[in-house]
Design a protein that fits this description.
By secondary structure, the chain is α+β, with helices and mostly antiparallel strands. It has a single domain, classed as Phenylalanyl-tRNA Synthetase, Chain B, domain 3. The protein is globular, with a radius of gyration of 15 Å. The termini are far apart.
């Protein structure tokens, strides 16, 4: 799952798969843009994320979300882009959910949406 500042995204959104060297973006907590080959070398040192790299690292193509300006939103299920990260100034949130079990994805999405709803302003 990924959460993004919706106001920083230009639709439509595309979900596709590309070779790791062809996906270039600034991932969360990174200082620079890099392709996914270099990114995975960096993430192999990350205590939290390194245990998930095996999910896609041996695939010829990696899944990726793009907006209409070819801005990378996320590399599921590994990491999101720094470009669309939410902040205290975020007003509208886009949630993307991927998985192999539709029922579990729907449950996770409902829980996440409910948690976000606790921080929404209602119309007066």
């Amino acid at each position: 799952m990924g959460t993004h500042d919706y106001d920083l995204i230009k639709g439509p959104i595309t979900y596709t798969a590309l070779p790791p060297k062809d996906i270039v973006f600034k991932a969360l907590k990174q200082k620079e843009e890099m392709d996914c080959v270099k990114l995975f070398d960096v993430l192999k040192e990350d205590q939290k994320l390194k245990k998930y790299l095996h999910i896609i690292q041996d695939m010829p193509n990696y899944p990726v979300f793009f907006d209409s300006e070819n801005k990378v939103l996320s590399l599921p299920p590994i990491i999101n882009s720094d470009t669309t990260k939410i902040s205290m100034d975020t007003k509208n949130v886009f949630i993307e959910m991927t998985g192999t079990d539709l029922t579990k994805c729907k449950i996770c999405l409902a829980i996440l949406a409910a948690q976000f709803s606790e921080h929404c302003q209602g119309d007066s």
